[in-house]
Amino acid sequence: MNEAKRLSRESLLYTGGEFLSKALGFILLPIYTAHLSVDEFAYLSMVMTLWPILTVFMGQGFSAFIVRGFFDYEEKKEFVSSVLWFSLVLGSGIALALHMNGDFLASRVFTKMTYRPFLQFAVVFALFRLFFGHVLAVFRAERRAAKTVRLSFLFFAANFLAVLAAIYLFRLSLAGILTFQLMAYAAVALVYLFALRHYLRPVIRKQIVWAGVIFV
Q1: Nearest alpha carbon to residue 1 among 145, 153, 135
Q2: How far is CA 13 from the centre of its chain?
Q3: What is the pTM of this model?
Q4: How is 76-126 classified by DSSP, letter by letter?
Q5: pLDDT in tens for each of the 216 residues of the chain?
């Protein structure tokens, strides 16, 4: 396969993977509108609006650093581990701070919405999505487009089936649906972690972290 065909194929696969990761909400929209009350749908919309914003503040920019800096370091395992662990520690710290001050912040920002239960779902979802984005960034850097798409499809399928099960099998309210999605996130995270196992080492190099902070 020549270079032009390879690049075209990879671009098509990456586009498909991005579409799957972003299309879930649109595909589920008719199901949500048919099942949820007006108030529940408003809460769901707020959750879906907040978690991408929170992901940015938790360190989403490190995904771009993984792609950009992957070939600048000979020790790939140290590079990936340092960026991943530092970003997750940072994101977890921000998530913990938001959780501890969630009621106070929610009372200042929202008039009819408390932190628990729905806003805390947004915080946890954001942390999971941060991890997913970093794992996919590693495989994009490696130019393993097919694996990237398979992992993206796994995320899509697990969440889609979780929502369908919560609604049609168990007849749950919004809190139950989000709980099912959270369980799907946790299961997918284990698969992503297994897929990345060859890169993971218990190490964080300050030079790599500092380069990432400057890049972000």
Answers
A1: 145
A2: 19
A3: 0.89
A4: HHHHHHHHHHHHHHHHHHHHHHHHHTHHHHHHHH-SS--IIIIIHHHHHHH
A5: 555 555 555 566 556 556 656 666 778 888 998 999 999 999 999 998 998 899 998 988 999 999 999 989 989 999 999 999 999 999 999 999 999 998 888 888 887 778 888 899 999 999 999 999 999 999 989 888 888 888 988 998 999 999 999 999 999 999 999 999 999 999 999 999 999 999 999 999 999 999 999 998
CA distance 23 to 159: 11
In our burial notation (b when 16+ CB lie closer than 10 A, e otherwise), range 57-78 reads ebbbbbbebbeebbeebeeeeb
SS (H, E, C) 144-178: CHHHHHHHHHHHHHHHHHHHHHHHHHCCCCHHHHH
Q: Is 39 helix (H, G, I), strand (E, B) or coil?
A: helix
DSSP 8-state symbol, 2: -
- Please, are residues 199 and 77 in contact by the beta-carbon 8 Å criterion? yes
Type of residue found at 216 = V
Residue 113: C-alpha distances to residues 102, 120, 125, 195 (Å):
11, 11, 18, 38
Separation between Cα atoms, residue 212 and residue 215, nearest integer Å? 5
How far apart CA 52 and CA 47 sit, in angstroms, is 9
